[in-house]
Amino acid sequence: xxxxxxxxxxxxxxxxCLRYGLAGFPGSVNGFWAFVDIGVGDYVSFLxxxxxxxxxxxxxxxxxxxxxxxxxxxxxxxxxxxxxxxPFRLFLEPVRVLEEPMVRPEFxxxxxxxxxxxxxxxxxxxxxxxxxxxxxxxxxxFGGALERLDVGGEVYTPRIVFRRGLARxxxxxxxxxxxxxxxxxxxxxVPENLGRVLEPLGVGDVEGLEVLGEKAFPEGHVDIFxxxxxxxxxxxxxxxxxxxxxxxxxxxxxxxxxxxxxxxxCGGGVLVGRRFSRGLAASAGRDVVFLRYRFRGVDPGxxxxxxxxxxxxxxxxx
Length: 318
Hints:
Layout: E1 3-7, H1 11-20, E2 22-25, H2 29-37, E3 43-48, E4 51-64, E5 76-77, E6 83-84, E7 88-101, H3 108-117, E8 124-127, H4 129-135, E9 140-141, E10 155-156, E11 159-161, E12 172-174, H5 177-188, H6 191-198, E13 209-212, E14 215-217, E15 220-222, E16 224-228, E17 237-242, E18 246-247, H7 249-262, E19 266-273, E20 275-276, E21 288-295, E22 303-304, H8 306-312, E23 313-317
Parallel strand pairs: 1-3, 11-12, 17-19, 18-20, 19-21
Antiparallel strand pairs: 1-8, 2-7, 3-4, 4-7, 4-10, 5-6, 7-9, 11-22, 13-16, 14-15, 16-17, 21-23
Helix pairs in contact: 2-5
């Protein structure tokens, strides 16, 4: 279970989200990433104008063909002339009614990400368990009823491809780093997998750890951030960098900058990639784990769903 804050582009779109209990994402790779990264059973709030609105549980999701003709969102038009529609939909069950400013200390985890990134230029942000706990105490339980919206349209399953010529957004998308990051995060969210990955760092108990998406630091943005869900005097922290292809010396240096920034609470780092520079793993030391990723039985000429790739993902120590 995760908790996400979903960015909304305008007050009008915010009203539609709250009215129907829907979240919609455009047919871009970022929209697809949000659609696959947020799962059924996760919780979301909406983020607009430096304020957080309501709490919902994701109860379903679907991708629709012909989204340009489907309610409730109008097309999103950019100055470049590019137009995006909203084929990717999350269906939401309201849990709590709230409207709170981001300046509250309870939102510090997400607010720091926003500040260091310089704004909202992401479809969604994953918050930690402490933030979710605090939001669960805000506002009041939902006691009304949402308006029903008959979306209509033909439902399809978007896929991921490994050859650029096979990509046909929003039906299929080229495999890229942001999707690999999401897959690795989901993989590590399974305690058995996480324990196997962190064992070389001397971690015996992983039950109290949570695996989160991108975390902003003054030095940059770490791809995956692992920390104690409920710190008790000491907070274990681990950083994970994910590269879709080759891991080089500069990637190790970047990881070490993140580790240094966390100081004494950092238990180590993990570098994930498809290939590694010669001798890199041998020179890294015992506080960094190198993992090579692959997908079992994948044909580069075929297309796969996100769950199919997640089920085929293998992380092996270098």
